[in-house]
Write a structure and sequence with these properties.
- Helix content is about 45%, strand content about 20%.
- It is α+β, with helices and mostly antiparallel strands and about 800 residues long.
- Strands 11, 12, 13, 14, 15, 16 and 17 form a seven-stranded mixed β-sheet that branches. Strands 26, 27, 28, 29, 30 and 31 form a six-stranded antiparallel β-sheet that branches. Strands 1-4-3-2 form a four-stranded antiparallel β-sheet.
Length: about 800
């Protein structure tokens, strides 16, 4: 019996567990991870996003409130000045001394004509005893409030402004005594101010004007709607007891609200990734094989590892060797624009079955990232320019275009290059419209005005006098790096069209001036010193700012390709010393400097301060975002992090991008940004302009901002936060080495406590600052820049960069 029972027990199958321990852990991990994702996104949706939205609304409303207060203040000041001017009329004072003035008298009619926007005007006679005198015309006043205003004006001998209700409508009266025997009343309907404010604010905000007297508050101008009272902004006005209240409207809130669709799509994607990855691990858990033991290997010692790893100098040398081998193996493929070997001499003889260019040789290093640039007499000789003209003309014709605009700057080599280039262009059959000596922005404007999208500007930009180059546009777009290389390929392959083009001339100067003065409004005349640096803006900039209403003091405004006074680069502060001295000598409000071809601008304030381009961009961005909530602002990797913070605080969207005018213009068109800027001084306006870099238009918009806000340039700079920063540091490096150095630096950095931005070189964002290293697009150099909360923090970041550079190439550190 016992034996049978034991046999039964032995043969009974064991009950298998549903999940193994590993599978249970996988399931619990999946559930916990998905729960965390939902919790995080629920918190963002219901707590963080409403808080951020409220902050954005509050910032935008605050900026609009400041602007509206300024408008009301200026309107009241102007009306008050006009009333005071009328009351000081000697003719009026003499007439009041002689007796009463009737409503149909000439003086009464003149007063009414002086204030056509007023509801009514009065001249009140005052007797010897003041208001109590029976001859005083107090009976002509509407109510006791107007009588009390007259009493205050007599006692205080100043302008009195008050609002009051009469016959169910609010009136605003200005009262000022005229000598000892009279006073003038100018009364406006409150609707006059209401229409003014509403026309400026549009439907973005609702405005209310409150008048408080003791404990009583009245709404003089009622808001059209009160949708968000929690974020209402209140601003006191210069009139005692007056307060302006600004309420954001639904359209403003909608423009600042974030679409939650993308947020929840990300949530669903995260959940799907977690679920799928855990499902894969769960299924594989059924097939985990038993691992076989293998003989253990002896690990290498640290010393052996160190001996087996190459140094960074060896890594760099290997990269450079690989680049040279690739160039040798693939001679038909052109390398990077700044890293190519010289192109062999081309002759009329046939080689390898195809014709070569008739030029004596072209420097490949002249074909850079977004333009053609080199030493004029050696790298851009007549043969090279003739070949470039044939290449550009052929490329434009291949795209279906028959016309091209041509301009040049004032360099000594520009006329020679101009003639050689024209010969090459005409030989392809394309028609050339010659605009003569102009600034680069004027050529871009001519493209828009004449609706011709193909253009070449002969200019060395901000470089020294021995340099020159060409900025090329096709189909209204600046050429990309690949487009520039395509032109080179055409020259090598002799892929040219043939024909006989026509050459005509045109003038764009006055049309350019008329377009700007028709757009920009300068509220008050300013005294400005214009430093054209003997460049291409010499003849146009003084005339433009004079027509804008400024008192212009020209400095170096004679075109001279020798640049005898200073180099044509206003971003170098030493080149602004003469402008600083002129601003101080003449007591000017502002100094404005342009580079050699006018697409860059630099500013000198009345106190002699020279703000960097990103500081100038902060002033311009504040204006753009205040008037266009949610607007996108573009800037390059060299700009201060304060710029990004200001754009966010004002309710805008900051976007960092690559350096270079071609890259910036492409990104402007892609994103729809209203404003862009580079640390090099290129500013791009899409708001009311065309999106290209224009130093003269940027300076005009700056003057508009300052005069409308009542600020000086020094006031605007004082309102900005500040950090410790370095200038742009240039380290000379051969073109064929600079990109490999940046690549080696990026691959071997170990900045584990920082964010990395690699859109152009490497920008390393630390908590207390940042550092940048990148290859220059315009010359054989590496550029670096640093910014931090303090000198010590910036020094630490610089040392981190130096240590890594020292390991890559010790000679680089000598230039720091």
């Amino acid at each position: 019996m016992t034996k049978k029972a034991s046999e039964t027990t032995a043969t009974k199958p064991a009950v298998a567990q549903r999940f193994s321990a590993n599978q249970r852990d996988i399931l619990l991990s999946a559930i916990f991870s998905i729960g965390l994702v939902f919790a995080a996104f629920y918190w963002i949706q219901h707590y963080e996003e409403p808080r951020a939205l409220t902050q954005r609304i509050d910032t935008v409303t605050s900026n609009i409130a400041d602007h509206q207060r300024g408008i009301v203040r200026d309107a009241i000041d102007q009306l008050g000045s006009r009333v005071t001017e009328q009351s000081n009329s000697q003719e009026l004072i003499d007439a009041l001394q002689q007796g009463n003035i009737s409503d149909d008298s000439v003086l009464s009619k003149n007063l009414k004509r002086a204030f056509p926007e007023a509801q009514d005007t009065k001249i009140i006679y005052i007797g010897n005893q003041g208001i109590a005198d029976e001859r005083s015309e107090t009976l002509r006043l509407r109510n006791n409030i107007e009588i009390d205003m007259l009493r205050k004006s007599i006692e205080q001998q100043k302008l009195i402004i008050e609002a009051y209700k009469h016959n169910d409508e609010w009136l605003i009266s200005f009262v000022k005594t005229a000598g000892k025997r009279g006073a003038i009343y100018v009364t406006f309907n409150a609707n006059y101010f209401e229409k003014m404010l509403n026309s400026l604010a549009g439907n973005t905000v609702s405005v209310e004007l409150i008048q408080t007297y003791k404990s009583r508050s009245d709404s003089v101008i009622k808001p059209s709607a009160i949708a968000y009272p929690d974020v209402m902004q209140s601003r006191p006005l210069s009139v005692p007891g007056w307060t302006l209240q600004i309420y954001p409207q639904e359209i403003t809130v909608q423009s600042l609200s974030s679409d939650s669709t993308l947020l929840w799509l990300i949530c669903v994607l995260c959940v799907a990734l977690i679920a799928s990855s855990h499902a894969i691990f769960f299924l594989r858990s059924y097939q985990i094989p038993v691992a076989e033991k293998s003989p253990s290997k002896t690990p290498k010692s640290d010393l052996e590892k160190a001996d087996s790893e190459p140094s960074l100098e060896q890594v760099l040398a290997k990269k450079l060797s690989a680049d040279r081998q690739n160039r040798t193996a693939k001679r038909d493929n052109f390398p990077a624009p700044d890293g190519a070997p010289p192109l062999p001499e081309l002759s009329t003889e046939k080689a390898s079955g195809r014709n070569r260019a008739t030029t004596s040789g072209i420097s490949i290093n002249s074909f850079r990232a977004y333009d053609i640039r080199g030493i004029a007499e050696t790298e851009l000789d007549d043969n090279a320019c003739f070949a470039i003209g044939k290449s550009v003309g052929s490329e434009a014709l291949s795209r279906g275009h028959s016309k091209l605009l041509l301009g040049r700057d004032g360099r000594l080599s520009s006329p020679r290059i101009h003639e050689a280039l024209v010969k090459g262009l005409l030989s392809t059959g394309i028609d050339v419209i010659d605009l003569g000596l102009i600034a680069t922005p004027m050529l871009h404007y001519a493209c828009q005005d004449l609706n011709i999208g193909n253009a070449i500007m002969i200019t060395g930009s901000h470089n020294a006098g021995e340099y020159n180059g060409m900025k090329i546009s096709l189909e209204f777009k600046s050429l990309t790096s690949q487009d520039i290389q395509t032109l080179r390929q055409r020259i090598e392959a002799q892929d040219f069209t043939s024909g006989n083009g026509n050459r005509t001339s045109d003038s764009i100067e006055q049309r350019y001036i008329d377009r700007i003065i028709g757009d920009v409004v300068i509220a008050q005349s300013l005294k400005v010193v214009i430093d054209a640096g003997n460049g291409a803006t010499s003849n146009i900039a003084p005339a433009l700012f004079e027509e804008l209403g400024c008192e212009v003091i020209p400095l170096f405004c004679e075109t001279d390709g020798n640049f005898p006074n200073h180099a044509p680069d206003p971003t170098i502060e030493s080149n602004l010393s003469a402008l600083k001295a002129a601003v101080a000598e003449h007591g000017a409000d502002l100094g404005i400097a342009f580079d050699g071809d006018g697409d860059r601008v630099a500013i000198v304030s009345a106190q002699g301060r020279c703000p960097s381009a990103d500081q100038l961009l902060m002033v311009l961005a504040n204006d753009i975002v205040t008037r266009n909530p949610g607007a996108e602002i573009l800037f390059d990797v060299k700009c201060s992090r304060l710029l990004s913070e200001l754009i966010v605080d004002c309710g805008g969207r900051p976007t960092m991008w690559k350096c270079g005018h071609s890259f910036m213009k492409q990104k402007m068109a892609e994103t729809g940004a209203l404003l862009g800027g580079e640390f090099s001084g290129h500013i791009f306006y899409k708001d009311r302009w065309y999106g290209f870099d224009d130093g003269m238009y940027t300076a005009a918009r700056l003057l508009e901002i300052l005069t409308l806000s009542g600020l000086t340039m020094d006031d605007a700079l004082d309102s900005q936060a500040s950090l410790v920063s370095s200038p742009e540091i240039l380290i000379p490096v051969a073109d064929e080495r600079k990109f490999a150095i940046i690549e080696t630096f990026t691959e071997n950095q170990k900045f584990s406590d920082a964010g990395l931005i690699n859109i152009d070189g490497l920008r390393v964002e630390f908590r207390h600052g940042w550092g940048l290293i990148r290859a220059s697009n315009t010359g054989p150099a590496i550029t670096m820049r640093f910014e931090a909360d303090s000198e010590s923090s910036m020094k630490r970041i610089q040392n981190d960069f130096k240590e890594l550079l020292l390991r890559i190439d010790p000679t680089l550190v000598d230039s720091l």
